[in-house]
């Protein structure tokens, strides 16, 4: 039990990775999903012989799994600097966590958010009291825009939803400032930590936010586990997110119908057999990152500088930015290349250079369209490069060289659309 619940946290300097695939494949798409940490893989390997269904069995494996699962709630609380009283609900991912929160807010809650949010944060909110405000060009104006929107909200519960880091440009949003404004209006704040959590320590208490959501697969754990961490009152008062076993205390016949007593705690939202192994992996990944922030930051800073310097020297390349002036950012950069279709460039980078980037609108259609237009582009799409722990200086240099060569040669290679994608 001790072995599987307290895996050794590796030294901060070098977080060992499974990079996956060919040795020289340059994965520059960490913002979509980050490859599993070697330490996570080893921990999961050790756990696999022991796992069983949680909360349901007296057997040893079930006890071990239950301990692991419950302890991981503490790991997540620590990882985001949560209050001891904060609830942790395990979900499939960030999308799931935000939909759960949207279903749990009291009726008639006013929701304020920027229309540039990722679709996972933009779309789950319903009703007349949802205000999706255009994101202004400066961080200061963004804070004022939230202030004004909140001032117009009717009486009643209020919630601001904001991302920590943009999945399009990597820029950090002024979360603490927005939270301070929200407090003045009696509003709660939900932080979409999907893109921030893999890059920077988050402190719920320092930021003074009420909820944070994140995904394991962006945090160097495998797919399938995420979390909603935050105040438990709305969650405990809400109808269960899923109806089923695990969410109930008692079910019995009630005349011709059925009587159900749901759990009074947040377990009411975790019906069904949970993803014990995924949750464990998520917890191990969080512990690894938490022990390595200095190394993570130094690695990213160096590579991001190299990348932005390199991209600035590519003719016809325009970087997309939410805010005027230099904003603090994580290692994610989107851009358009004058005269080149993003999907075509991505296909060439993959086929000719062994580089994986993302093209399209990154589940943030409104943001990408607006930023592409602002940069004089005509399309609704862009290219995105995102760095991670497995990225090397060679990957960055290869990308910059490739882009320069593509621009120099022009769009003369023969590529066609196969199954909806450009291919040689
Ligand atoms: N929010 C942001 C900012 C994201 O970047 C993403 C993933 N691209 C999500 C939410 C949704 O995450 P998931 O797909 O893991 O649910």
UniProtKB/TrEMBL annotation:
<dbReference type="InterPro" id="IPR000192">
    <property type="entry name" value="Aminotrans_V_dom"/>
</dbReference>
<dbReference type="InterPro" id="IPR020578">
    <property type="entry name" value="Aminotrans_V_PyrdxlP_BS"/>
</dbReference>
<dbReference type="Pfam" id="PF00266">
    <property type="entry name" value="Aminotran_5"/>
</dbReference>
<keyword id="KW-0045">Antibiotic biosynthesis</keyword>
<dbReference type="InterPro" id="IPR015422">
    <property type="entry name" value="PyrdxlP-dep_Trfase_small"/>
</dbReference>
<dbReference type="InterPro" id="IPR015421">
    <property type="entry name" value="PyrdxlP-dep_Trfase_major"/>
</dbReference>
<feature type="domain" description="Aminotransferase class V">
    <location>
        <begin position="27"/>
        <end position="399"/>
    </location>
</feature>
<comment type="similarity">
    <text>Belongs to the class-V pyridoxal-phosphate-dependent aminotransferase family. Csd subfamily.</text>
</comment>
<dbReference type="InterPro" id="IPR015424">
    <property type="entry name" value="PyrdxlP-dep_Trfase"/>
</dbReference>
<protein>
    <submittedName>
        <fullName>Cysteine desulfurase, catalytic subunit CsdA</fullName>
    </submittedName>
</protein>
<keyword id="KW-0663">Pyridoxal phosphate</keyword>
<dbReference type="GO" id="GO:0017000">
    <property type="term" value="P:antibiotic biosynthetic process"/>
</dbReference>
<dbReference type="GO" id="GO:0031071">
    <property type="term" value="F:cysteine desulfurase activity"/>
</dbReference>
């Amino acid at each position: 039990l001790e072995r599987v619940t307290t895996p050794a946290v590796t030294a901060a300097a070098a977080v060992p990775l499974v990079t996956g695939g060919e040795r020289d494949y340059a994965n520059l798409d960490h913002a979509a999903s980050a490859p599993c940490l070697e330490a996570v893989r080893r921990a999961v390997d050790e756990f696999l012989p022991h796992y069983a269904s949680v909360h349901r069995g007296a057997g040893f494996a079930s006890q071990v799994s239950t301990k692991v699962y419950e302890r991981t709630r503490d790991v997540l609380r620590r990882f985001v600097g949560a209050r001891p009283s904060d609830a942790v609900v395990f979900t499939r991912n960030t999308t799931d966590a935000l939909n759960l929160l949207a279903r749990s807010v009291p009726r008639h809650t006013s929701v304020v958010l920027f229309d540039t949010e990722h679709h996972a944060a933009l779309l789950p909110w319903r009703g007349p009291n949802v205000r999706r405000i255009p994101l202004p060009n400066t961080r200061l104006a963004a804070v004022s825009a939230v202030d004004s929107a909140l001032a117009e909200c009717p009486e009643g519960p209020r919630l601001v939803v904001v991302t920590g880091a943009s999945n399009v440009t990597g820029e950090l949003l002024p979360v603490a400032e927005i939270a301070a404004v929200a407090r003045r209006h009696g509003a709660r704040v939900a932080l979409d930590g999907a893109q921030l959590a893999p890059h920077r320590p988050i402190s719920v208490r320092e930021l003074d936010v009420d909820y944070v959501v994140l995904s394991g697969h962006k945090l160097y754990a495998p797919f399938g586990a995420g979390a909603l961490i935050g105040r438990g009152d709305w969650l405990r008062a809400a109808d269960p997110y899923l109806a089923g076993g695990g969410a109930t205390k008692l079910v019995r016949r009630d005349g011709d119908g059925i009587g159900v007593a749901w759990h009074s705690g947040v377990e009411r939202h975790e019906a069904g057999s949970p993803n014990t192994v995924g949750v464990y992996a998520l917890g191990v990944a969080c512990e690894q990152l938490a022990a390595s922030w200095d190394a993570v930051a130094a690695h990213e800073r160096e590579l991001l500088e190299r990348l932005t310097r390199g991209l600035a020297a590519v003719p016809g390349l325009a970087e997309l930015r939410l805010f005027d002036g230099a904003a603090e950012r994580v290692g994610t950069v989107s851009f358009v290349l004058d005269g080149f279709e993003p999907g075509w460039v991505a296909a060439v980078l993959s086929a000719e250079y062994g580089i994986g980037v993302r093209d399209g609108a990154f589940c943030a259609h409104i943001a990408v369209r607006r930023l592409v237009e602002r940069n004089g582009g005509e399309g609704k799409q862009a290219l995105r490069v995102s760095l991670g722990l497995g990225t090397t200086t060679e990957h960055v240099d290869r990308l910059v060289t490739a882009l320069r060569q593509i621009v120099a040669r022009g769009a003369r290679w023969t590529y066609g659309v196969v199954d909806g994608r450009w291919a040689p």
